TrEMBL record:
Gene3D superfamilies: lambda repressor-like DNA-binding domains. It comes from Ruthenibacterium intestinale. It holds the Pfam family HTH_3. Residues 7-65 form the HTH cro/C1-type domain. This is Helix-turn-helix transcriptional regulator.
Length: 162
């Protein structure tokens, strides 16, 4: 998903108009909505300082705005192939279902991704068990890794397996 789509997603999630968000960023009232529309449609790409400002106004991490381009299935597949190369991601079958697994023994980066995914699973389990609200879960996701205060340390593989 391109950055413009992420801006649009979070703007709507926060109940903001393009004009409101543009003015909150300091654009003149006359052109605020036009400027935001340009970013959301991808005709303009915000620079790093504007991305940081957008993230602050939208109350998310800048990382939540800058995600890999997965607008097509082919782009998504190539993203997954890169994760296989860099982090040991594997497609497996479990009980007739497809699953993605991380081979944490591949390298240090794969072990770190494995730890991060355990943390994600823990937060998702808390949501499923009713221990946290959907808002709490979304706050954790949209601020990751900055918003990690309530997180319990991720489970690590047994000693000697890395």
């Amino acid at each position: 998903m391109a950055i413009g789509e992420r801006i649009h997603f979070f703007r709507l999630l926060r109940g903001m108009t393009q004009k409101y968000l543009g003015m909150a960023l300091g654009f003149p009232e006359k052109s605020a909505d036009v400027r935001l529309a340009q970013y959301e449609t991808g005709s303009r790409t915000p620079k790093a300082d504007l991305t940081a400002a957008l993230a602050q106004v939208l109350d998310v991490s800048p990382h939540a705005l800058s995600v890999p381009d997965i607008d097509s299935y082919v782009g998504l597949m190539h993203t997954l192939f890169t994760l296989e190369d860099n982090y040991g991601l594997k497609v497996t079958e479990q009980d007739g279902e497809l699953a993605l697994q991380v081979d944490f023994r591949k390298n240090k980066d794969a072990a770190r991704l494995h730890e991060m995914l355990w943390t994600w699973r823990e937060q998702a389990a808390k949501l499923e068990a009713g221990e946290i609200s959907q808002d709490d879960y979304d706050r954790w996701r949209y601020h990751y890794p900055e918003y990690d205060g309530s997180q319990i340390r991720a489970k690590m593989p047994p000693e000697g397996l890395i």
